[in-house]
TrEMBL record:
Main location as per UniProt: membrane
This protein's name: ABC transporter permease
Locations listed in the record: Cell membrane
Ranges that cross the membrane: 34-52, 90-108, 120-143, 149-170, 201-225, 245-267
Protein family per UniProt: Belongs to the binding-protein-dependent transport system permease family.
Entry keyword set: Cell membrane, Membrane, Transmembrane, Transmembrane helix, Transport
Mode of membrane association: Multi-pass membrane protein
Domain of life, source organism: Bacteria
PANTHER family from the UniProt entry: ABC TRANSPORTER PERMEASE PROTEIN MJ0413-RELATED, ALKANE SULFONATE ABC TRANSPORTER-RELATED, MEMBRANE SUBUNIT
InterPro entries named among the record's database cross-references: MetI-like, MetI-like_sf
Residue ranges of every copy of the ABC transmembrane type-1 domain listed in the record: 83-272
Length: 282
């Protein structure tokens, strides 16, 4: 009971501190980083205290200190899994899928036939469950990272395609008529007007695809992989009841996903600095 009272008091105190910082200094740049950091630190302290105080088994929920110890002892394994899953599987599939989506979006914009025929098929394929697609692609492309990249391509292609098609259609008739009065060709209008106008839409799709790429690469490894990779390691560690290692892999995936998303968001800010949504954040 004393642990429960401590947890409640600590949570209320941390909540009050964060609320005060958000109200008093929420608009300042340093507060945007300090407030989430304090909130995360509060969660970790509560987690550690409750696990130790309630004597919860590490098989059910390891404490953050146990996860940190496992992380430090398994850096070589975690690095190999990161390279196999994130760099080879997720990143390569992300680049191929997103690049292909942009090219196909331009083709669809040029062809009403493709717009009416391909987009409905795309919606159908996007609705297919990953647990149904992954085993098939693993059998087609083998057990190495190529099959995981293929799964990622399928997962990221259509969200980026839909956003890019919508972005290319975002310009209004007055803007298109203005380019026509300048005798601009289709490609001149595309590169000088429509592609810049489509950038906010494209980056929305790219940011969504960052999380889809990681999920696809990790889940695909559950259906066959060499003796490395995050999905492989999680499945084998669960079987060995090594939950601290499982949480270490989850930590690496979360950090990689956050960094990947942040990188795309940073590029978006540099590319679409002119957009009202970016000016409002400064």
């Amino acid at each position: 009971m004393s642990w429960l009272i401590f947890a409640i008091v600590f949570w209320l105190a941390a909540w009050a501190l964060n609320s005060w910082l958000a109200k008093a200094h929420g608009a300042e740049r340093w507060a945007r980083f300090l407030i989430p950091a304090l909130f995360g630190l509060t969660i970790l302290i509560l987690w550690e205290g409750l696990v130790l105080g309630l004597n919860i088994s590490p098989v059910i929920l390891p404490a953050p200190s146990q996860i940190a110890a496992s992380f430090a002892a398994s850096t070589d394994i975690l690095r190999e899994d990161f390279v196999q899953t994130i760099l080879k599987g997720a990143l390569s599939g992300y680049l191929i899928g997103c690049g292909a989506a942009v090219v196909v979006a331009v083709l669809i914009d040029r062809s009403p036939f493709l717009q009416r025929g391909l987009l409905p098929i795309g919606n159908f394929v996007a609705a297919l469950p990953i647990v149904g697609i992954a085993p098939i692609l693993v059998m087609w492309f083998g057990f190495d990272w190529q099959s995981k990249a293929a799964v990622v391509v399928v997962m990221v292609f259509f969200p980026v395609l839909v956003n890019m098609v919508a972005g290319l259609a975002a310009t209004d008739a007055l803007q298109r008529d203005l380019m026509a009065t300048y005798s601009a060709s289709y490609w001149q209008g595309l590169f000088k007007m429509r592609l810049p106008a489509a950038m906010p839409f494209l980056f929305n799709g790219l940011k969504i695809a960052t999380t889809l790429a990681l999920i696809g690469a990790i889940v695909a490894e559950f259906f066959g992989s060499p003796t490395m990779g995050m999905g492989f390691r999680i499945s084998t560690a669960v079987g060995q009841l090594d939950l601290p290692l499982v949480w270490s892999e989850i930590t690496v995936a979360a950090l990689a996903g956050s960094g990947f998303y942040g990188l795309v968001a940073l590029i978006e800010k540099l590319v679409t600095f002119w957009h009202p949504s970016q000016r409002a954040r400064t």
